[in-house]
Design a protein that fits this description.
Elements (H helix, E strand, L loop, with lengths): L1 E7 L5 H17 L6 E6 L7 H10 L4 E6 L6 H17 L4 E4 L7 H13 L2
Parallel strand pairs: 1-2, 1-3, 3-4
Helix pairs in contact: 2-3
Keywords: Lyase, Metal-binding
Protein name: Sirohydrochlorin chelatase
InterPro entries: CbiX-like, Sirohydro_Cobaltochel/CbiX
Length: 122
């Protein structure tokens, strides 16, 4: 079973965490049929955490999980914290395949998105 885990930083503001849940719901609709399950997790300040989010997908039967960090740039969280948490779950579940995607600014279409948005405001 293929699954996607979208990861955000997490916020003390419940409305920000709810906004992320809404974003994930829109992504789920866009990806209908491409993944068997889609979950969300937070690095800190909100639940579920990354390990719990991964475990939830494993409990649902996931054998492959794509982890998408919804972080703009490659700071400490993207370069160290998230990979370490993912690696811990991978080591505990050697039969599981986990692919950690790049942060948003590293994705090829992101620059195009920014250019379109900038020109829309002209």
């Amino acid at each position: 079973m293929n699954a996607l885990l979208m990861v955000a930083h997490g916020s003390r503001l419940a409305s920000s965490n709810e906004e992320f849940a809404d974003l994930a719901a829109r992504v789920r609709e866009k990806l209908a049929g491409k993944y068997d399950a889609l979950g969300t997790a937070f690095l800190e300040l909100a639940e579920p955490g990354i390990a719990s989010g991964l475990q939830s997908l494993i409990d649902q039967g996931a054998t492959r999980i794509d982890v998408m960090p919804c972080f703009l740039l490659a700071g400490t969280h993207v370069r160290h914290d998230i990979p370490e948490l993912v690696q811990q779950v991978q080591q505990a579940n050697p039969a599981l395949t986990i692919k950690l995607h790049e942060h948003l600014a590293a994705e090829p279409g992101f620059v195009d998105y920014l250019a379109v948005q900038a020109l829309a405001g002209r």
